[in-house]
Each structure stands twice: as structure tokens, then as C-alpha cells.
Amino acid sequence: MSSSIKLLSGDFGHVINGKLDTAPNAKRLDVNNPATGEHLASVPICDRATLDKAVEAAAAAFPAWRDKSWAERAEAVKKWGEHYQSSIPDLIPLLTAEQGKALGISHYEANAVTEWFQAMPTMELKETTVLDDEKMKAITRYTPLGVCAGIVPWNFPILLMVWKIIPAVLTGNTIIIKPSPFTPLCDIRIVEAAQQFFPPGVVQVVVGDDSLGPWITEHEGIRKVSFTGSSATGRLVAKSCSATLKRFTLELGGKDPCVVMADVDFEKAIPQIFMAATLNSGQTCVCAKRIYVHDSIYEKFSQALAGAFQNGAVVGDPLKEGVLIGPINNKMQHKKVSEFFDDVKSKGYKTFAGGDITSSGDGLFATPTLVDNPPDDSKIAVEEPFGPIVPLFRYKDEAELLKRINSSEYGLGASVWSTDLEKAGAFARKIDSGIVWVNSSPVLHPRVPFGGCKSSGIGCENGDQGLQGWCQLHSICVAK
């Protein structure tokens, strides 16, 4: 299969100071297809000297890039975006091969990025006059921080990398990307292509193992880290960044509640909640991870959703037509998801659909599963599996439901489903999370800030606030 993927031809490596560095003498990291175990490519493992080289190149490129106008930087981003769009047909099968997501989901991820290329260049952060009286005029402006880094996870490697690069370079920073060791191939190819649109050192990528992340977060030459990953690792990132007082944005785990009210429109809600629960084999930070259904419709709704799981959740080779659920991305995550399936079985919880971790074949698969009303303190109710196993809960009283929802340590996303928009909106305002969708599965947009509270993160990406996170607030006060 790998021979049919165009972008696998040629060597993979770091992209430093405008050039691909294959580092032939470095230790190598193998990238495998999680659906088949097939070897796709090998990439070099970054050492400290290589990281220093990238930081030095980024620091050298920063002054000239900072001094360009927003319009000049925006033009570079737009041209890069045009080239990126032409590469999408080749990126889709490579993304499916290294990440394991179904072709349709890879198509969604690769194409969704184009909206960021188009919208963000128009979102210029302009100077604002905050005081103008007889004594003084004061303005505030946003200035770039300098050398930044983006640490990208394996679940949405293209989307979440571009989320970091575009706002960083638009605001005048230079950036070094560290892809996940499980999914570095698309990111390398995209950054490699970007070199023709940016001066050397502005956008770089270094590939490495578990040692590279800490080296980045503790590096004195890096002024900000944008990290997407688990809450446990996010805490380590924050601690490491604090040693050099570098800025950080953390987009971390979630246990997103999905509230189904008694007056829900079944026809509209079922397909979207099904997708919200199973997208990317449940490996999505804003998946519907705990579904609360009003007691009066619980039986009817659970059976309807179970039907969607049984009929629509086709598991298998993600390159095959009709397959919606590909494998879990890596062995470590597959083992973690297995523990949730084992716990459900050992505790004797009833399931509406699925129930077994492995569906078929030799890949890292898991059967999409719905768990019937487990205890609120159970493992599946409290922890994030990051896989396609989802609990359904009954509720009667909305005030009590709100307590149950907000008792979670997480607060990333949520959704509320009701034909009464006023009622749903009022309930949504009381949920402790960074973003709530009403009558919609998760929809992301460059202009809408995205970030969590509590253990789900600090800061946000996207929107004006996301852009500001890559900047230093600078005030200038002029006496009259």
C-alpha cells in the first residue's frame, strides 16, 4: 500500500533554516500504519545540538520577519495556503496511513485547514487608543514574542499544526514544530513545502522521541510553547516553562458532556451525536464522552443511538470505502482504551452496542461501544478513554444534572440538544467548559476562540484572543 502514496517518496527529516535535514547519522524512529502494522518510513531523532541549531536559525530570522508589515506576512500565509490546497489529494492517503483515520475523516481534516489560511490573514491585531484626554494619549499594541514552539499531537496532526503556525507567523514570530513521533510524516511534508514562501528559519520542524518535548519547554531561547495533548503532560509542560518564564498555551484533555433534553429532535440529533461520539475513532478532544439523556426518553433514545452505532460504525481498514472507524493510533493508546473495556466487563455494566475492544484483523481496532447508565464514580464516567467507548446516563432534574456535569475535573467542550433554544442556551451558560455547542456536534472556526478550563487547559487558540496569545501587550503613553 505504501508504494501507492505519493508523498512517501523521498527522505523524511527535520526542516531547519530552510532546508530538509535527513540527518543520516542520527538514530531513527519508525513510523508504522496502525491498521496493518506496515512500516511506512523512518525519521531521524533530534538531539540537543540539532534543536539548538533550529533555535539559532529561528532567532536569526526573527528580527527581519518581525519588522515586516502584517500585510506582507499575510501575503506569505495566503500563498502557502494556495500551495497547501493543491497538495490535499496527496496528503489525504498519507494522513490515513500514518494516523489510521478513515479516508472521509482525513478528507475533512485536510480540507478544514483551508479556512484558517483564508480567514486568519484578515484578522489583523491593530493598535487601540485606550486613553486620550487633555494630559495624555495612550495606545496599546501587540508585539511578537520571538522564537516559539508548537508541540503537536497524533490525533489531528495537520489541523493542530496549522492552528499553531499561522497565528504565530502572522503576529511576527518564528516557530519550531515538534510533531508526534507517531504521526510526523504529513507535518514534515507540509513544512518542507512552506519553505518556498517564508524566509529560512521562520517555520521549521524537528522530529524526536520523548526527550525532545522537555528540551523544548526548558530551552532558554524559546519564548512560548503551544502544547496540545494530555492533561498529565500539560502539567509537566507548564512546570518546565515556568523555569524560564516562557509563555504557554495548553489545550488538554476533556470529558465532554452531551445533554439530551426531553424535547430533542431525534432525527437531527441522533446522526450528529453519533458522529460526535465516534469521530476519529473517539480520538478527539471534543468528542461527546458522556451523554446525559432525560429519563422520559432514555429508553427510546438509547435504542436509536445504539442503532446508529450498530449500523453506521463500520470498523476496518480506513483506506476502504464505507469504513468510518479506523484503528486506535498506537499500541500505548490501544492498551489504555482496552483498560476501559476490561473495566466495563469486570463490573458487569450493560452495553447497548459493542462491548469488545478488538473488532477484526491484526490492527489496533476497537468496536464502538455504548455503556448503559454506569455509576457516576465509575472509570468510564470519570476518566477520558480517548477511544470509541461512551457512557449514557439518565437524568431527571436539571439542577442536579448541572452538579453532575460540573463535578468533572475537565472543562473543554460540551453540547446541549433541545428544540427550546432559550432553555438550551440558558443551560449552556451554566456549564463549566471553554465552548458549548447548542444543537450541533463540534464545529470549529478560525474566529471562534477554542480552549478549556480546569484540567482542560490554559489560554486558547483561534479568534482574536488566540492571536493575542502569541504576543506581548505593549502600551505607549505620550504626554501632551
TrEMBL record:
Membrane-crossing segments per the record: none
Stored SUPFAM superfamilies: ALDH-like
Boundaries of every Aldehyde dehydrogenase domain copy: 25-475
Presence of the UniProt keyword Oxidoreductase in the record: yes
Active site as annotated: 251
MF term (GO), any: oxidoreductase activity, acting on the aldehyde or oxo group of donors, NAD or NADP as acceptor
Keywords from the UniProt entry: Oxidoreductase
Keyword Oxidoreductase: yes
Family as reported in the entry's similarity comment: Belongs to the aldehyde dehydrogenase family.
UniProt-recorded name of the protein: Aldehyde dehydrogenase
